[in-house]
Amino acid sequence: MADLTPSNPPAVSRRRLFAGAGTAGALAATAVALPLVPVAPATTNTDPVPKPQGGGYRLSAHVQRYYQTAKV
Questions:
Q1: Is the pTM higher than 0.70?
Q2: Which string of DSSP letters, residue by residue, matches the chain?
């Protein structure tokens, strides 16, 4: 087992070094790209949208024709 006393610190492995470099690169890229993200303005209109009047189902000529052809 390795002696981890303060006089003998552990050596930095290449794997840990590359992982740290990759993390630092990702953080740097995020820091550069973060100010470029557009911020959507806050909307203050909370009124419900009124439903249009007069819409809905209508028994038109083409619907009646469909019912005639769909009879069993």
A1: no
A2: -----TTSPPPPPHHHHHHHHHHHHHHHHHHHHGGGSPPPPPP---PPPPPPSS-S----HHHHHHHHHH--
